[in-house]
User: Which sequence fits this backbone?
């Protein structure tokens, strides 16, 4: 009966799960109920404890604890001066070592990870500019120029890239140093290389090049895909960068994404200055004008430079005619969450709340999910020190990682905390992170 | 009722949507609207919204609707269609209306109690940033529920004007929605356009609409289009609209078929949706809150100023020479029409 069903062509919507491609690939006939368990690897969610008994891994609490440790160790709680306009060159190693298969499918196929990194970089640094360089056959060549829009870089990455020859760290450094010399002084210069080769083949003294980079204030970081190499370590130590080695694909992705948020700018690096910028209006549909970037007439949907009235196609860009930097306010607003961060939520122990004779909250204020574990036992939750609303652990991670708004603080015009904010600080179990802003002052 | 995973894989196809409706219940806005006899009253507005919610459920019974009320002092989730129990009340209204109306009434009363000590006159904003944040947290919870989940989107029905103090919070919500690929549709029923909602819909790829005739609001909101087969569309559209018109659109004078907000995301690619009117992307300066065309940006904290300052008021950094770091092209040309300010 199963084989006859398989021969029927895919027509309808809902009855199609019998004809999925996995079925064809498996060859055998999986019953419908078996399919729910086909990808099930439930043995992986168990681990042994001290007495050699199996118990399930509590992923959620572990993930949350990891997240809190990371937040605690990074000094981002305080409003520090971050290098908000980074100019970064990513160097991709295309030597023969990059075609090794220890990372599936090959070390070079980290293009996907670099693409994710580029998107995340522009997300976190809307004013930043990125350029791509590749190293092949002992020479370094520029793949894309410094630019502010992710699509051109991603398109170049998706092109065919062959691996051959040896890698040369010095040539990459020299090339990037030449390009980054022209960057204005308010920009933060960075160099990131994904190094797969176990050695480097350099024409001259690489130590001199490293000193040159250090003098030009270029912060060099390396993400290694092979073993630890002394010269990379030395380079990162000298210039104040980060050297990390990826253990597997997911670790590589994590390491790469660590470089996306703006690094804390060291005081002598970034000279504050006022940059003149223009905020163009978007033209109405149906307006025909000659676009200054492509030199051809275009219909509708462009932006007009406020100084010289030239039409540009996309933002952010520099006007080709008068050189004014053009941005739109959402681009700048992307960075405002660094300036006005959300206060860290404090962990709350339900036993303390019951001693205060306060009701244990039933639902998370953000997602309305029940805060009680099955069996009506209270689970783990956190509270905002300013508005004293309770949130589940997943909302905590989402709010601080992506949303940057506390729903409780935003939903209350006049925050009147249910319990005193000072008491809430003492209620937290374990180590308490002292928040930069005093909650009692904000709550009044 | 949560279906087992294998059952869910059969039921959840492309066109199941999760619709978060953010309803503006700001009493200051509705009070001035009631005083103005030609505009919509809150009760007729609610009847349009309830009919619209009903139509969403009619299109696909698995569609999930959550209503969040945006008040003046607080925000609250007033209705979640996944929690409703099927119960018919005494006067024949199905439970879906009863619970929503009951919660909404309770919410409005509580909201009013909170502003006993505040006397506001004129136009005041509601807490849109709060309800947007709550909607996004809920959507994240739906994303976490498994690989198969309905397609989420947010619909803001807003009448109150924009509050400039919520700018950063609303922009944060918009970028988070953009990253999670959740479109924000806006239906503005107030007198003036909302710049925040225009930007929200533009950035997230939603639809922005300011209806001309508010008594036809239901027709602006509703639409039948969850079938992928084009021939079915016309047939079903006719049948459904006839039904709707016969039952609800007695007061409507609008003969256009405006089909906008009820469509699920996959069907939007085949529809002619209202074109964006144009989005005002200009920024406001931090010193005077004027909208400016050209300004100066602090390189450390990105605050916007309309004139040159010695020190940044946001981050306190002292600036170096103003023109020495500008790009070469900038230095070469003198701007002919740049605004001259009395103070350097």
Assistant:
């Amino acid at each position: 009966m199963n084989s006859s069903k398989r021969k029927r062509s895919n027509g309808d919507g809902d009855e199609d799960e019998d004809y999925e491609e996995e079925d064809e690939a498996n060859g055998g006939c999986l019953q419908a109920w078996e399919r729910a368990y086909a990808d099930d690897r439930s043995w992986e969610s168990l681990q042994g404890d001290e007495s050699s008994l199996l118990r399930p891994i509590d992923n959620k609490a572990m993930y949350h604890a990891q997240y809190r440790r990371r937040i605690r160790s990074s000094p981002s709680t305080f409003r520090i001066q971050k290098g908000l306009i980074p100019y970064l060159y990513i160097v991709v190693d295309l030597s023969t070592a990059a075609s090794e298969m220890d990372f599936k499918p090959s070390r070079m196929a980290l293009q996907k990870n670099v693409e994710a990194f580029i998107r995340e970089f522009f997300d976190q640094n809307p004013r930043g500019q990125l350029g791509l360089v590749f190293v092949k056959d002992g020479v370094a060549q520029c793949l894309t120029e410094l630019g502010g829009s992710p699509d051109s870089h991603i398109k170049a990455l998706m092109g065919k890239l062959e691996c051959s020859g040896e890698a040369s760290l010095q040539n990459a450094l020299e090339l990037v140093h030449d390009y980054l010399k022209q960057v204005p002084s308010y920009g933060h210069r960075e160099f990131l290389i994904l190094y797969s080769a176990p050695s480097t083949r350099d024409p001259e003294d690489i130590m001199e090049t490293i000193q040159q980079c250090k003098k030009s204030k270029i912060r060099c970081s390396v993400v290694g895909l092979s073993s630890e190499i002394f010269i990379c370590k030395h380079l990162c130590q000298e210039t104040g960068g980060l050297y990390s080695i990826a253990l597997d694909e997911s670790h590589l992705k994590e390491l790469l994404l660590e470089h996306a948020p703006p690094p804390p700018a060291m005081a002598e690096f970034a000279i504050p200055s006022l940059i003149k910028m223009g905020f163009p209006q978007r033209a109405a549909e149906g307006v025909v004008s000659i676009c200054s970037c492509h030199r051809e007439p275009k219909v509708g949907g462009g932006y007009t430079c406020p100084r010289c009235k030239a039409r540009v196609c996309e933002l952010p860009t520099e006007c080709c005619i008068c050189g004014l930097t053009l941005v739109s306010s959402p681009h700048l607003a992307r960075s405002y969450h660094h300036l006005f961060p959300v206060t860290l939520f404090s962990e709350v122990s339900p036993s303390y709340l019951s001693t205060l004779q306060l009701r244990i909250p039933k639902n998370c204020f953000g997602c309305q999910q029940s805060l009680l574990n099955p069996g009506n036992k209270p689970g783990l939750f956190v509270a905002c020190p300013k508005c004293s609303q309770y949130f589940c652990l997943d909302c905590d991670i989402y709010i601080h990682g992506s949303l940057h708004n506390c729903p409780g603080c935003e939903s209350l015009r006049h925050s009147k905390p249910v319990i005193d904010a000072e008491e809430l600080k003492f209620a937290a179990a374990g180590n308490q992170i002292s928040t930069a802003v005093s909650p009692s002052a904000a709550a009044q | 009722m949560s279906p087992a995973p294998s059952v869910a894989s059969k039921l959840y196809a492309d066109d199941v949507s999760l619709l978060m409706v953010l309803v503006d219940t700001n009493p200051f806005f509705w009070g001035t609207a009631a005083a103005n006899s030609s505009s919509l009253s809150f009760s007729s507005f609610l009847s349009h919204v309830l009919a619209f919610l009903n139509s969403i459920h009619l299109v696909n019974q698995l569609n999930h609707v959550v209503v969040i009320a945006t008040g003046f002092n607080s925000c609250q989730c007033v209705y979640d269609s996944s929690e409703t129990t099927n119960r018919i009340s005494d006067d024949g209204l199905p439970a879906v209306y009863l619970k929503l109306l009951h919660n909404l009434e309770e919410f409005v009363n509580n909201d009013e109690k909170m502003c006993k000590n505040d006397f506001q006159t004129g136009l005041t904003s509601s807490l849109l940033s709060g309800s947007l944040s709550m909607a996004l947290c809920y959507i994240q919870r739906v994303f976490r529920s498994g690989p198969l989940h309905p397609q989420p989107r947010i619909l803001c029905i807003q009448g109150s004007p924009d509050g400039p103090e919520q700018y950063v919070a609303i922009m944060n919500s918009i970028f988070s929605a953009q990253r999670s690929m959740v479109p924000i549709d806006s239906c503005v029923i107030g007198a003036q356009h909302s710049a925040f909602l225009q930007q929200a819909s533009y950035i997230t790829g939603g639809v922005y609409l300011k209806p001309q005739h508010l008594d036809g609001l239901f027709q602006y909101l509703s639409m039948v289009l969850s079938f992928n087969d084009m021939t079915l569309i016309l047939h079903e559209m006719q049948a459904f609209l006839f039904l709707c018109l016969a039952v609800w659109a007695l007061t409507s004078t609008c003969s256009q078929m405006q089909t906008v907000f009820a469509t699920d995301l996959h069907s939007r690619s085949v529809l002619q949706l209202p074109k964006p009117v144009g989005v005002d992307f200009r920024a406001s300066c931090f010193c005077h809150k004027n909208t400016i065309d050209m300004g100066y940006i602090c390189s450390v904290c990105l605050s916007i100023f309309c004139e040159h300052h010695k020190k940044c008021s946001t981050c306190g950094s002292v600036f170096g020479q103003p023109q020495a770091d500008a790009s070469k092209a900038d230095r070469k040309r003198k701007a002919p029409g740049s605004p001259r300010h009395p103070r350097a």
User: Anything to note?
Assistant: Chain B touches chain A through 85 residues (CB under 8 Å). The CA atoms of residues 13 and 107 of chain B lie 35 Å apart. The radius of gyration of chain B is 23 Å.
